[in-house]
Amino acid sequence: MKKWLIALMLALPSLALAEDTLDTGDTAWMMISTALVLLMTPAGLALFYGGMTRSKNVLNTYAMVLGAFVVAFIAWIAAGYSMAFGDGGSLQSYIGGFGNVFLSETSWKDLSGTYPEYVFVVFQGTFAAITVAIASGAVIERIKYSTWLVFVAIWTIAVYAPVTHMVWGGDGALLFDAGALDFAGGTVVHMNGGLAGLVLAILVGKRVGYNKVAMKPMSVMLTALGAALLWFGWYGFNGGSAFGANAIAGLAYLTTTLATAVAAVTWILIEWVVFKKPTLLGAASGVVAGLVAITPAAGFVDVSGAIIVGGVGSVVGFFGVATLKKKLGYDDSLDAFGIHFLAGLWGSLATGLLAVKDNDLLWDGPLKESGDRMGQFMVQVESVVVIGLFTLIGTVVVYYIASALTGGGRVDEETEQVGLDEAVHGEKSLNI
C-alpha cells in the first residue's frame, strides 16, 4: 500500500483501524464516491458541454466526452495506473514504472488502507477519464473523432499518468516530496485538462466563421442540468479524496458546497453589473468555476478559506471567459481553459495561502513542518509551473502523433459546415 495513503489513514483520528484491515463503511463510501465521479463525465460534463454546442454538433460533443471516458479508462488499466502509482525505480520522481500493467501485480484481495485496492484503481481511473474529457471542450466542432480517440489513449498514459505520479505518487515522487498540496486535483485534473484544451485549440485552429457568425448554444437548460449533475458528482470527487467515511470527507463536503455557492452568486453579480442581465449560462459557469477552484483546497481550508477560494475563483473564471479569450483571440469553444485551468490555477495557489496549519491531513511540506506559509506558497508555484510545462510539451507531442496516425487532426470545411453529427455519426438531434 502506498506510504502516503498509510500516513493519511494514520493521521485521521476517526480511522483507528489497523493498516490493511477492511472497513465496510470506508469501502461503501469509496464505491459510492467512485460512482459519483463516474456520473460527472458521461452525464454531467457531456450535458454541460452539449448544451453549449450548436445543434448540428451536439451529438458529436456527447460522443467526444463519452469516447474520452471509455478510452481513457481502458488506457488507465493498461498502463496508466502502473505509471501513476507503481514503483518507478530510478525514474520514481516522474513515473511509477510498468511493473503493474493491466494490474498484473494487483489482486482482488489487496487492500488500499481500509478498502480494496481495486476500488482505488477505479476511483483514480474516473479522475483520469474526466481530465482528458475536459480538454475536449476546447476543440468541439472541428477535430476529427478518430484523432480525438487516439489522442485520448496516448495522452492518458504519456501525460496524465506522469502528472498524477509527480503530485500523488508518494515518497520519491517529484512534487509530492516537495510538499505540494493538491487535495483532489487542482493541478492533476483541472490545470492539466484545461491547458491541454488550450494547446489543442491552438493546434487545431479556429472554427470556420469564428467571431464572424453567431454560434448560439443549443440548450442552456441542458448546460444548467449538466452543471447540477457535476455539482452532485463532485461530492464523490472531493469527498472521496479523503479516502474514507471520516471527518475530512465532511470538511470537503462543507467547503465544496460553500465555495460553489459563493462562486455562483459572484458570477451572477458580475454579469448583473457588467451586462445588466444575469444569465442562467453564467450562473452554471459560476457553479463549475467554484467547484474547480475549491478542488485542490477542499480538505485543507476552513469556512473563510472556502468563501475566498470560491469568490475569487469565479472572478478569475469570468475574466478568462469574457476578457482573456477575446484579448488573445484563441477559439476555446466551451471555455475549458478559461474555467478549468485558470480557476484550478487560482485554487492551487490559494491552497498554500489559506490551508489551516493545524489540519492533520496536511502533507509534509513547509506549512506542516515549520508553519512557513510563504514557503508553502512557493512550493505551490513550483508545482503549477512543473505541471504546466509538462502538460504543454506533452500535449503538443501527443497531438502531432495522433494527427499523423489519423491523416490530419481536423475535419474538412464541408464536414464542419454540415455539422459533425450528420457528417461523422450519421445522426441528427432535435433542438431542446
Supply the key terms.
single chain, 432 residues, mainly alpha, Ammonium transporter fold, 16 helices, 68% helix
Describe the structure concisely for a colleague.
The chain has helices at residues 3-11, 24-52, 58-85, 117-136, 145-168, 174-178, 186-204, 220-239, 247-274, 280-294, 303-328, 336-354, 366-370, 373-405, 413-418, 420-425, and strands at 111-112, 115-116.
Write up what this structure looks like.
- By secondary structure, this protein is mostly helical.
- It has 16 helices and 2 strands.
- It has a two-stranded antiparallel sheet.
- Helix 2 runs antiparallel to helix 8 and helix 5 packs antiparallel against helix 7 (186-204).
- It is globular.
- The termini are far apart.
CATH superfamily: Ammonium transporter AmtB like domains
Structural class determined from secondary elements = mainly alpha
% residues in beta strands: under 5%
Silhouette: globular
Query: If you compute it from the alpha carbons, what radius of gyration comes out, rounded to the nearest whole angstrom?
Result: 20 Å
How many helices? The count is 16
Which series of helices and strands comes N to C? HHHEEHHHHHHHHHHHHH
Biggest β-sheet: strands ordered side by side in the sheet:
1-2
Low-confidence stretches: 6-18
Fraction in helix: 55-70%
- Main beta sheet, described? 2 strands, antiparallel
Which CATH top level class fits?
A: Mainly Alpha
CATH topology, by name, is Ammonium transporter fold
Distance between the termini: 48 Å
Mean pLDDT: 93
Topology, element by element:
Elements: H1 3-11, H2 24-52, H3 58-85, E1 111-112, E2 115-116, H4 117-136, H5 145-168, H6 174-178, H7 186-204, H8 220-239, H9 247-274, H10 280-294, H11 303-328, H12 336-354, H13 366-370, H14 373-405, H15 413-418, H16 420-425
Antiparallel strand pairs: 1-2
Helix pairs in contact: 2-3, 2-4, 2-8, 3-4, 3-5, 4-5, 4-7, 5-7, 5-14, 7-12, 7-14, 8-9, 8-10, 9-10, 9-11, 10-11, 10-12, 11-12, 12-14
